[in-house]
Structure formats: C-alpha cells, structure tokens
Amino acid sequence: MGGFYIGRERRARKAYGFDEVALVPGQKALDPNDIDISWKIGDLTFSTPILASAMDGVVDTNFAIQMGKLGGLAVLNLEGVQTRYDEPVKAIEEIVYSSPEESVETIQRIYRVPIKEELIEERIKEMKKAEIPVAVSCIPQRAARFGSIAEEAGADIFVVQATVVTTEYISSKDKKLDFNKFCRQLSIPVMVGNCVTYETAYDLMQTGIAALLVGVGPGAACTTREVLGVGVPQVTTTIDTAAARDDYFKKSGRYIPVITDGGMKSGGDICKALASGADAVMIGSAFARANEAPGKGYHWGMATSDENLPRGVKVAVGTTGTLKDILYGPARLDDGSQNLAWAIRTCMGYCGVSNIKEMHEVEMVIAPAIKSEGKFFQEVQRLKGKR
User: How crowded is residue 307: how many other Cβ atoms within 10 Å of its Cβ?
Assistant: First the structure.
C-alpha cells in the first residue's frame, strides 16, 4: 500500500476531508429539475438523500413526522429523553436553560432516569399514525431487546449505532451483538454504524445489514477525534467504504447503501460526500438550527462509554429557519446550510449526472485552497462583521 514516511520505517496514508477536494464540472450540463436525487433502503424509497441524526436536540416525534412528510428520514434516539420522560420537552428545556456551570450536572441527572420501554412503543406509534417511514436507533448493547419492541410497534428501520462498530468485539464482561443473528431475527431493514475502513464495511455487509453509516468523529459536537485521536477524514472514509459496497454487490448481488454521517456544514460538503460514493448523508447541526428541532438551537453529539451520560455536550447554534427552508428553501442564509436539496440538484446538473449512482463517477481534484481562492472581499467582509 502506498503512502508517505512519517518517521523511520513508519508509513502513513494521506486521507482527505471535504475542505481538501473539489468536484469537476462535466462536459454537459443538466437541468436541475430533471435530476433524480432519490435513494432506497430495503423496499423504502426517499425523495431526498438526507437523514437527520439520532440526537435528542434534533429529532423528536414531531420533527420526524415533518421530515418524513418532506421526503426525508429522521432517526429517533431510543435512549434519550424521548423514552425516559412522558413530557420530554421539559427535560430538554431544563438542559437548554441551564447555565454553563450547571449544564454537565443537569445533563447527567436527566439521563440517570431509566428508559421506559412502554414509551418506545408509544413514540413509534405516534410517528406511524402520521403515515411516515419510522426509523429508531440504539447502541449495540440494547439492540436485541429494543429491536423486537420497535418492530412490534411498527418501526420501518432499526438503526444500531455506536462510535465504532465492528463484527468482532472482544470483552471479558460484555456480550457482543451477533449482527448475523440480529438481522435474521428482525423482518425490517437494519442500518448499522459507524465504521471508516473497507475491511470493516465489507465484514458488516456480509452480516445481512440493509445500510451502513460511515464516519468516526467528524460531527460538530463529537469529540472522539480530539479526545481519542481516532478517525479518518470523511472523503477518504466514504471512498473506502463505498468500494467495499461495490465489491460486495459484485459478489452477492445485494446493494448496501453507504450513508456518510457527520462533518458536513453545507450543501457543497453533501455533494462531495455523494461524489465520494455515498448514497445518502446524515447530518445533525443544520437540523438542530431548525425551528422544529426540540432543542430550539441546542444539540449534542454521539454516545460516550457511560450509558447514563448524554450523547456529547451541549452546543449553542441558534435557530435559523424552518425544516422546509433547510431542505428545499428558499435559503435565508448565504453559508450553504439551507436549500440543500436544490444545492445537490444544481451540483449534479453542473457535473452532468442525472442520479446519485452517476454522481459516484464525478471527477474529483485535490484542492485545499478551493474555499479561499479569490475570496478576498468575502474574507474582509466577514472580518469586519466580527468587529
């Protein structure tokens, strides 16, 4: 395998993130209105390739219903406040309005309240009543129990998600989740994540999963890379895992969608993820800023090793518009965080491709200065705006 020497007899491969690459326009251009940006998982088809992260500050039942009616998919966290409290909005408000000094203690106290299994069923039925596809998630340790409850309540997709997931987990105390057995037991599609390498992705696909989440530590509120030093930039992650998907498809005839999870701040980042091989993307920060988000401008990231702690830390981002503004416009901001579906269509039109599978073949160049090249006046204006 190629790479660079970073020390005596120690080689390292160069990996790339969204800010380091750019997409090359095609030899033809297409009308954005004629482009198909739909994607599938199992027998379900979604009109937009964007999922909302299973974060308590992003997705509650109302948000999931609104997202579903707009053609997207929102994942409800079965281990958060929605299944611990009959009135979860009060718990979220307590976190939102706590001072910085009190917030950690407040969050710890709120998440010590046990999960109520009857609320899992209740939340799923609330969403099913709205006639939308329902997706719910939990960590591997609870999947066996919660999976059966969710399926019986009518969930359409079950997500098993942890910071890093592999088919092999060795522990002297904990029993690992057998993904082969788990996928056979459930009659609904199982989405699993997260991973970053070709080998792990291929291993997971062989277990019978229906979709794969990829990315470790890129989320705005996730501290895995800083605290543990673990992760791979998202462009390289997506390319590597998409290669596993394509190789597995050639061998088995089963196509397992790859979903790039986290690290995308704008429509341009989403387009680069799709060009890297993703079939869809999962984002949290952009949706945390929606008027419909339960946190109303606050969100937190992925799970820690302590199951009684929340998924990361509280982050203030401020509401900026409706969920419809974010997905379909009109854009009220110029930072690329809104009208995301149109951004995808327009990019694909410039690149001369008519669907997401064709987008996987778009030429990409290494361009670390792509965002700053020739942007002198923008930089000056932003500096002045901060004074």
Answer: 12
Instruction: Note whether 81 and 75 are within 8 A (CB).
Output: no
User: Confidence class of residue 18 from pLDDT cuts 50, 70 and 90?
Assistant: very high
Cβ distance 17 to 232 under 8 Å?
no
- Is residue 51 within 8 A of residue 281, CB to CB? The reply is yes
- The pLDDT tens digits for 305-349 are 344 444 444 444 455 689 999 999 898 888 888 999 999 999 999
Determine how many CB atoms are found less than 10 A away from the CB of residue 114.
8
First and final C-alpha spacing in the chain: 49
Cα gap 199→106, rounded to integer Å: 40
29-35, long-range: CB < 8 A, 24+ apart: 29/349, 29/350, 29/352, 30/348, 30/349, 30/352, 30/353, 30/354, 31/349, 32/342, 32/345, 32/346, 32/348, 32/349, 33/345, 34/354, 35/345, 35/348, 35/349, 35/353, 35/354, 35/355
CB-based contacts of 343, cutoff 8 Å, min separation 6 = 266, 267, 268, 270, 271, 336
Cα–Cα distance for residue pair 105/94, rounded to 1 Å: 11
Domain locations in the chain as residue ranges: 18-375
Distance of CA 93 to the CA centre of its chain: 24
Of 313, 302, 314, the residue nearest 162 (C-alpha)? 302
pLDDT number for residue 315: 46
- Decide if 191 contacts 41 (C-beta within 8 A): yes
Strands 50-52 and 280-283, sheet pairing: parallel
- Three-state SS for 87? coil
Nearest Cα to 211, choosing from 282, 105, 317? Answer: 282
Average pLDDT, the chain: 88
Which whole number is the average pLDDT over 249-273?
96
Average pLDDT of the residues in 255-268: 95
Q: What confidence tens digit (pLDDT) does each residue in 117-146 have?
A: 999 999 999 999 999 999 999 999 999 999
Q: Are 280 and 51 in contact (CB under 8 A)?
A: yes
18-375, what's its fold?
Answer: TIM Barrel (3.20.20)
Amino acid 326 reads I
- The tokens for 306 are 């302590």
